[in-house]
């Protein structure tokens, strides 16, 4: 997880969360906190920026005039450039740090070079963690500007010379083409959204399209599968559902499931998704 000087969940409640990223404290929306009460009214008065939704898709930040456009935080050797987006994001999902720690462990412990495909890869946390541990990585995200953001994070992390291919493409289309080309991978990482669009307007709906994509990932890794990492933030897809998806569409092996929770300064837990990890039974950990 993050060192507390780099990231901290200070409080949450009433549909919002208060977080400190490095030196800057942000107050933004959090649907998972709708039913919770805030713990400390005083803590919220120190926010450096506040995000409010304008409609179902976008919003705006209220910030002081001297607020930085970008800043960085660290997770071990990885460096992430942050910026406030119109969607209320900053280029980092801190709960994913648990997956990055696991990726480093499993890649280093593989005792062979791994070729890893990272789908819906966003700003590259999992790509960087795998590459830093010695993997060859293919990084796929539908948004070209987000792929460039990920490349910037690689440069900041001293990983610009590592074997990472950066591709702006629809995830399902890319996997289908790789199968036709006869290409193979040792592992796949997936962090799919509930809904989304590819660069040419392709429609993604997790409930409709994830099973087929997992089946294609099974075929893509059939010869030498080392692991599959699936994380999800979609309501209705909890530990049981993710475990069943991997067992049904990846096949025999050991599946371990972990809640991706954030813990506040007062010790309260904010649910932030689920991770399901498939490993061959003989090396499961």
Protein model, in words:
With 285 residues, the chain is α/β, with parallel strands linked by helices. The chain has two domains: 7-82, Sandwich (Immunoglobulin-like); 94-283, Vaccinia Virus protein VP39 (Rossmann fold, 3-Layer(aba) Sandwich). The chain has six helices and 16 strands. The chain has helices at 97-108, 125-132, 144-156, 171-181, 206-220, 239-249, and strands at 7-13, 16-21, 24-29, 49-53, 59-62, 71-75, 78-82, 115-119, 136-141, 164-168, 187-190, 195-197, 203-205, 227-232, 254-263, 269-279. Strands 10-9-8-11-14-16-15 form a seven-stranded mixed beta sheet, with helices on both faces. It has a five-stranded mixed beta sheet with strand order 1-2-3-4-5, with no helix packed on it. A hairpin with a 5-residue loop joins strand 15 (254-263) and strand 16. Helix 1 packs parallel to helix 2 (125-132). The longest helix is centred in the C-terminal third of the chain and has 15 residues, at 206-220.
A few lines on this structure:
By secondary structure, the chain is α/β, with parallel strands linked by helices. The protein is built from 6 helices and 16 strands. A 7-stranded mixed sheet has the order 10-9-8-11-14-16-15, with helices on both faces.
